[in-house]
Specification:
2 domains, mainly beta, Elongation Factor Tu (Ef-tu), domain 3, six-stranded antiparallel β-barrel, disordered N terminus, SH3 type barrels
Length: 188
């Protein structure tokens, strides 16, 4: 069976961007500011996307819970992170204020996904059933481990952690709002 895949662009955010619907976010997080880098306002950013080239593909990103727009002046990759230079951030003091902020792009500008791929935010709220049609609950959270993604499923039986591995994930049906799983021994 050809299994659906997901594409991790994590931490979707609702916003008032034109073209977004109530179920689809206006912004998608592609990184998080770790700290300033140097004295000229560069930001050391942790990458939260499978498409790190996005940092160079866009002229504008949005930061923080209010999605403040910033113009990208430059970027470079360094030690598994991206060093991001924003036109409005001129020195280390201005960069320090942005520590811990999420870096977003407009969802309408995101890299199109291949057939069968989904964004992580689309997994939240899916009903989870076993291949035997047993209702387990709903995906309420996602945990990114070093090895694989884990879905936190909450239902009548309590909380179950479902690893996103081929042996467990049978199908993802966004249109039906379902995630079908084959439970391995010890997952309950």
């Amino acid at each position: 069976m050809n299994k659906d895949r997901y594409h991790p662009v994590s931490h979707a955010a609702q916003g008032s961007d034109e073209g977004s619907t109530p179920s689809e976010p206006a912004f998608l997080a592609i990184g998080r500011v770790l700290r300033p880098h140097g004295v000229r306002g560069e930001l050391r950013v942790e990458i939260h996307t499978d498409f790190p080239e996005q940092f160079g593909a866009y002229r504008q990103v949005y930061l923080g819970p209010d999605y403040m727009p910033y113009e990208i002046e430059g970027h470079r990759f360094h030690q598994g992170r991206v060093l991001l230079k924003l036109r409005e951030v001129i020195d280390r003091t201005a960069a320090e204020v942005l520590r811990g902020q999420w870096v977003y792009i407009a969802a309408k500008d995101a890299v199109p996904l291949a057939k069968g791929e989904v964004y992580l935010h689309q997994m939240l709220g899916l009903r989870v059933k076993t291949v035997e049609d047993e209702e387990l609950g709903e995906v309420v959270d996602l945990i990114e481990t070093g090895a694989n993604l884990v879905y936190v499923v909450r239902g009548m039986q309590g909380e179950i952690l479902i690893p996103d591995i081929p042996e467990v994930i049978e199908a993802i049906d966004l249109e039906a709002g379902k995630l079908i799983v084959r439970l391995m021994e010890g997952l309950r």
